[in-house]
Write a structure and sequence with these properties.
The chain is α+β, with helices and mostly antiparallel strands. It folds into 2 domains: about 180 residues, YojJ-like (1 (3-Layer(aba) Sandwich); about 200 residues, DNA integrity scanning protein, DisA, N-terminal domain (YojJ-like (1, 3-Layer(aba) Sandwich). The protein is about 30% helix and about 25% strand. The strands form 3 sheets. An 8-stranded mixed β-sheet has the order 4-6-5-3-7-8-9-10, covered by helices on one side. The protein has an 8-stranded mixed β-sheet with strand order 12-14-13-11-16-17-18-15, with helices on both faces. It has a two-stranded antiparallel ribbon with strand order 1-2. The longest helix has 21 residues.
């Protein structure tokens, strides 16, 4: 069904990932092209199915039964359960059984038949524990009981037609709209969008007190917020205004909803940073939980039509807002990724009102940052580089990590 060049893209990305000096990969043979084709095509078609009227999500792991002991001996432990009777690896089987498993913690295990000429089968399920977000991590491990995603090919369906291809906890790339896009470093890397986020927070009380530690947690905060809006599936726009420019830039925002009170998210973030010095693990976890709950509130506000406007110290300004800046008619380039990528033209004409209103706003408001969360998964980020150029990061969630 898919052209050979799509499978070649995936295998080339896998090969580059294995050779990358910073990935610390165990050298293994490349996945068999036939296995990749069968897994991708079947997963793609299954992702388009619905169970009881709802889209399905699932994870598929390519693993033969004779590899199980090798994975266990590598120290990357999982709980593997073998079906008494294997299931055919088909769209129908996936649709029926996937609701029984949480794709963030469990995967169906697939392998070709014993002679590799027979049909592929689902022979078991694997539990490996969730890939935790920084604000949710428990700062302690229990020897022998901590589970990891295995160092093998995994395909996760996150939306109809949208697949993540990973190796363990590290992402190889995303399959979307019939094409494959390899993973890139997170755009919040200091030599990418991170340069711009640092500039917006330099006047924040927390940055003055905690410097780089504050920036790191602030970056985790943005990642968490964008992820939460994305998983809600409504799409949206989030605009971050520099504290010193809030009153000036509000003139280009038609606010539909706002509150008289402040959420005081910055004060809570500072308490999170203070708590990190504590030796009381339960207290650290409690503070992180309270802060993530505050971010959940903001994420939900972004799910109605219009933009969520917040300041760089995370205060809520308005939501359901309309951006009314004049049209940006100059350059739009792909932003740097800190690893030598970026600089290509980005064609805004292919995208709708949300993207163009975000571009127009950052073009008129230097120092502001806008994110457009699409219903199909990608999160695009925009900043103004100079008077001639707006930078775009095409997917702020397609990073090297699952």
């Amino acid at each position: 069904m898919f052209e050979k060049q799509i499978i070649d893209k995936i295998l080339n990305a896998w090969s580059r990932d294995q050779a990358h000096p910073y990935r610390d990969r165990k050298q293994k043979p490349l996945p068999d092209p036939q296995d990749v084709r069968v897994i991708i095509e079947t997963a793609f078609l299954a992702s388009l199915k619905r169970e009881e009227g709802k889209p399905i999500t699932f994870c598929i792991t390519l693993l033969s039964k004779d590899c199980v002991m090798e994975e266990c001996s590598s120290g990357r432990k999982q709980v593997i359960m073998t079906f008494e009777q294997s299931l055919p690896f088909s769209q129908e089987s996936i649709t029926k059984i996937s609701p029984a498993f949480d794709s963030t913690t469990t995967s169906l295990i697939v392998a070709p038949g014993n002679d590799r000429s027979s049909d592929y089968e689902i022979w078991g399920a694997m539990f490996y524990g969730p890939s935790l977000k920084p604000l949710e991590e428990i700062p302690v491990g229990i020897e022998g009981l901590t589970l990891f995603r295995p160092d093998v090919m995994m395909v996760t369906a996150i939306a109809p037609g949208s697949l993540l291809i990973s190796r363990g906890s590290l992402l190889i790339g995303r399959f979307l709209y019939g094409d494959f896009v390899k993973s890139t470093p997170t755009p919040f890397y200091s030599k990418a969008m991170g340069n711009y986020t640092i500039e917006t927070i330099k006047d924040n009380e927390g940055f003055k007190r905690f410097q780089n530690h504050y920036w790191q947690v602030h970056t985790d905060t943005l990642n968490y917020l964008l992820s939460e809006v994305s998983v809600r599936g409504h799409g949206g726009i989030i605009v971050i205004l520099p504290n010193s420019k809030v009153e000036e830039y509000k003139k280009l925002v038609l606010a539909k909803y706002s509150f008289e009170e402040k959420l005081n998210s910055e004060a809570l973030l500072i308490r999170v940073l203070d708590s990190s010095k504590s030796e009381d693990i339960s207290f650290i976890m409690a503070m992180n939980r309270r802060f993530s709950e505050r971010l959940d509130l903001l994420a939900q506000l972004a799910c109605i039509d219009g933009a969520l406007i917040i300041s760089s110290n995370l205060n809520l300004i308005s939501f359901g807002s309309t951006l009314i800046a004049r049209k940006w008619d100059r350059n739009i380039l792909i932003g740097p990724d800190g690893f030598g990528g970026g600089g290509e033209n980005w064609d805004a004409s292919k995208w709708g009102t949300k993207h163009n209103s975000a571009i127009n706003f950052v073009g008129a408001c230097p120092g502001s940052i806008a994110f457009v969360i699409s219903q199909d998964g990608p999160v695009r980020g925009f900043v103004k580089k100079d008077e001639e150029t707006v930078l775009c990061w095409p997917d702020c969630l397609v990073s090297m990590f699952v």
